[in-house]
Amino acid sequence: MVNYTTEIVISFITIINLGFIVILYLLLAFFFSKLIDKIEKPDNIEIIKKKPIYMLILEIILFFWMVSIILYIVWNITPMIPFPLDGIMGYDHLKVKELQLAPLFTVILFFLQKNHKLKLDYLYSNIL
Fold first, then answer.
1. Cα separation of 120 and 6, whole Å?
2. Taking Cα atoms as reference points, which of 98, 89, 94 lies closest to residue 23?
3. Distance between CA 50 and CA 119 in Å, rounded?
């Protein structure tokens, strides 16, 4: 027999957990975006135009490599951050598949990287 009260509570906790995960990825994306900005000096379009194409391509490749490493770190850190409602009525925070996929983190991180967007736009308009 299905206990509808338990199902409703578990569904409500899952919705809260999804919000928790979104906020977690948003904060981590802001943190890592600021870290990338501190590591790499921002360029403006005039500086980008003066760089050789191979240098821009190398910088973009290194950026995506760095993002891959950051994504790996985030993917392994986020399950360790405790969810306050974990365990209530048997709820298991680690079973939420959105916790492991992290696409939202990647989208937010790319959105915050104005410097690399300028480089990609410049390359796209001048190579293709």
1. 49
2. 98
3. 12
- Other CB atoms within 10 Å distance of the CB of residue 17: 21
Phi, psi of 87 (to 5 degrees): 95, -15
Task: Report how far apart, in Å, the C-alpha atoms of 93 and of each of 11, 21, 65, 74, 108 are.
Answer: 12, 10, 30, 16, 23
Cβ(112)–Cβ(27) under 8 Å? no
State pTM to two decimals: 0.78
- The residues, ordered by sequence, that sit 6+ positions from 28 with a Cβ below 8 Å of its Cβ are 74, 77, 78, 105
Tell me, what DSSP letter sits at residue 40?
Answer: S
Task: For residue 115, give both structure tokens.
Answer: 């410097």
52-95, pLDDT tens digit by residue? 989 988 988 999 999 999 989 988 888 888 888 888 888 888 77
Nearest CA among 47, 66, 68 for reference residue 58: 66
Instruction: Round to whole Å and give the CA distance between 47 and 119.
Output: 10
